[in-house]
Amino acid sequence: MQHPVGQPAPRRTSTRPQRGRAVTGPQPAASFLRRPWVLGMLVVLVGVALAIGMAQGRAPTISTPAPEVGHSAPAIALATPNGTPISLADLRGQVVLVNFWATWCPPCRAEMPAIQAAYARYHDQGFTVLAVTADEDQAAVAAFVRDHQLTFPALLDPHGSVHAAYLANTLPSSFFVDRQGVVRAVHHGPMSAALLDQQLAALLPQP
Predict the structure, then answer these.
(1) Contact in structure between 153 and 76 (CB atoms under 8 Å)
(2) CA-to-CA dists, residue 8 to 4, 25, 57, 75, angstroms
(3) Domain check: are 58 and 151 in the same one?
(4) 140 partner at 20 to 30 Å CA-CA among 17, 23, 49, 89?
(5) What is the CATH classification number for the domain harbouring 143?
(6) For residue range 151-198, what is the model confidence (pLDDT) as tens digits?
(7) Number of domains in the chain
């Protein structure tokens, strides 16, 4: 008897029962699931699913939020070249300029006099600056601060964790944080004295 090409030939069924084996229909699903190896596989699959779900559920809590305007500024806890620890949380109640820079960055060097002038002018009104650098050479940072007569804190971020938290992929990058710790403005590139005055005029009067 011929069968179409590409299709298996029909299986022959026997009417004689095999010795020691009852002739029955398909086994129920419950009987199949009672097999030890099937239960083992189900336990493994459930465990993998739970592990993936827990990992996905934890991701939002361990990841650092992006520094978006209107949202809380990511935490900063770093030290100056002489080892003095400074935290952004300790500055709550002040307007803070978080400035990302490097000693080898020409635009960063160009804007430093304007930042220092703004700090000197508005510090008594509750304005401060955190100048965060990824430079690993403490001596070079200390020399830069001394040579440019900077009186605001320069903070070392040798592992780049704070740069990553603020998504500071370009230098200089500046984030204006209000007295409640909320990001109110973001600026990439060197800042002028006029831009600084404009931003601070809007933020400093706020209680």
Answers:
(1) no
(2) 8, 22, 48, 68
(3) no
(4) 89
(5) 3.40.30.10
(6) 999 999 999 999 999 999 999 999 999 999 999 999 999 999 999 999
(7) 2
